[in-house]
Amino acid sequence: MDPQEYQQIEQQNTPPTPYLKNALKAFLVGGIICAIGQAITFLYIIFFDFTDKTAGNATVATMVFISMVLTGLGLYRKLGAFAGAGSAVPVTGFGNAVVSAAIEGKTEGLVLGVGGNMFKLAGSVILFGVGSAFFIALIKLILVSMGVVEW
Amino acid sequence: MIVFYSFLIAFIVGGLICVIGQLIMDVGKLTPGHTLVILVVAGAILDGLGLYEPLVDFAGAGATVPITSFGNSLTHGALAEAEKHGWVGVLTGMFEVTSSGISAAIVFGFIAALIFKPKGKAN
Amino acid sequence: MVILFASKPSILACGAVAGPVESKSVFHSFFDAVAEDERWGQKTNEQGHSKMIQEACDIVMKKADLKNLDVDYFLSGDLVNQMTPTNFAARELAISFIGLFSACATSVSSVIIASLLTELGASQYAIAGAASQHNAIERQFRYPLDYGAQKPATAQWTVTAAGYALIGKHDPKLPSVVAATVGKVIDYGEVSPFHMGGAMAPAAYDTITSHLKKRHQKITDYDLIMTGDLGKIGLKILKAMFAQTDAEQKELEIFRDAGAEFYGEDQAFQAGASGAGCSASVFFSYIEQQLKTGRYKRVLLVATGALLSPMSFQQGESIPCTAHAIEITME
Asked: Which of C90, C103, C160 is nearest to C132 (CA)?
């Protein structure tokens, strides 16, 4: 049997990806997590005198804290299995990636296991976030010094 | 009423960013790692074009909670410092307006590793 | 080439052990022991994996009334880096050890080697088999356990189980190995580690057709052809491949898959079970017993393995697979 023939048989007998269902689940869960974030932002503005801008930072830190607890209790993985991008894309997903890798590395000790493995999943986000910020700022700096744009 | 409206917008915008992520994973057949990288870079580029801050003003947590906001705050810091201090500012600025998310993840990850035990068990 | 065992080495005893999640398996009543702690009281998953292997081998030796000193060879493998759990178990068992890596096909490749050693007269008693522990393997091949990853319907669950068989001289009252086919490595371009069934089916097809051809046999010469862990979807694909080459419905019904049946209809396990311990624990408990009771007289056990590594996946490679087969009869 040649590979093409096989791929046909494989495709016919493999359940298709439920694109719509997955997108809907991602929308709902992602939306709810952001709505919760909005509530937390309001709490910080109203009760703790944060401004619009600084409340954003505090909200993100709080959401990461929540994801730490949910991850440690084994609940975030269940959410992730259901929601896909809905739980991976919010900053709680980033927290989950770091925390889950950290917890798992424990058997190899804090230094090599936890420290060495913690950024297994999330490291690329940090790398590319920092990298793109650098290049974009650099490009803008060059364009400004050439007089093409204003700050 | 305004409060309800802002929740709704946060819900919708946040949800849509997640849908984009889901499509990158399902249609683009990319891993979660690749997907998050694409979104972070997108956030950075949008801030470079001056488009992300208006989105934050409009959608609040709908724009600050998704991972795209990391790219945004890192770029924002770099741009702000570059404006003030030129070349050096490009590097120092990034963590001035820090991604509190990254610091939080590191600190809480460490704490979690101290407290929690890795688990097994079925789905 | 097909290997023919003129002396017909027999399966003298079997031992199968599984973890707490596997108490949900439809085969759990056939296992010798189901542990309550997935780490067998050890500090790490890898150490627990090792302890589980030891326990299964101890059960085999106890059933055959043998001590470690009496056993000539220990043949085994697992899916962890450098087969660490197996190596450490071998240290504790203190039996001459050959480590084998055929991924999830190790259950059968180890029995083939053990049977060859027996046929040669080089071994009187050899313990062969394989094992897997969910946490240790998931951690290495996929994501940290607490990570919220979404898995498609084609994904399979790696079992925590070990299965070992004692291979020795022919005994007419026991199941005997009469022939074997060592598989080639087949790769039809599947890249997703979440679709192992699709990756491995061509290898199973190749090995089965080769064995039947070289033995001048038909599918209906067998009471059962059981693959290791193609899963529900992989089994469907395999049957479709045979249907394509004109196998009839009654012939297709002879095919079963340990992974597809392992957890029954429980949706939490998606396409079914996989892992080196899947085929091993089912073949060396349930199938052995079906043979001894005479329900099956001639079976072909085809363990399937996906020969990828975390690195090969990151380097964008597809998944090469293999399948090894042993033909077992009961007089």
From this structure: C160
What are the angstrom distances between the C-alpha of C206 and each of C1, C105, C211, C226, C252?
Answer: 12, 14, 9, 14, 16
Instruction: Please tell me the predicted confidence (pLDDT) of residue A142.
Output: 92
State how far Cα A121 lies from the chain centre: 10
Q: Flag whether residue B115 sits within 8 Å of chain C, measured between CB atoms.
A: no
Neighbours of A53 (CB within 10 A): 13
Closest CA–CA distance from residue A70 to any residue of chain B (Å): 10
> For residue B122, what pLDDT is reported?
45
ipTM: 0.92
- Low-confidence residues of chain C: pLDDT under 50: none
Q: Give the one of C24, C146, C150 whose C-beta lies nearest to B119's C-beta.
A: C146
pTM (2 d.p.): 0.93
Asked if C12 and C168 touch (Cβ cutoff 8 Å), the reply is yes
- Domain segments of chain C: what residues? 2-168, 176-329
| Facing residue for A59 by CB, picked from B37, B61, B116 | B61
Q: What is the mean pLDDT of chain C?
A: 96
Residue pair C87/C45 in contact (Cβ under 8 Å)? The answer is no
Question: What are C321's strand-pairing partners?
Answer: C186, C306
**Residues of chain A with C-beta less than 8 angstroms from the C-beta of B26:** 17, 19, 22-23, 84
Set of chain A residues whose Cβ sits within 8 Å of the Cβ of C142 = none
Phi-psi region of C123 (alpha: psi -120 to 50; beta: other; left: phi over 0): beta
Residue B15 tokens, joined: 């949800």
Question: How far is it, in rounded angstroms, from Cα C274 to Cα C262?
Answer: 9
What range does the domain containing A58 cover? 17-120
Fold that domain C2-168 belongs to in CATH? Peroxisomal Thiolase; Chain A, domain 1 (3.40.47)
Give the three-class secondary structure for C324: strand
CATH of domain C176-329: 3.40.47.40
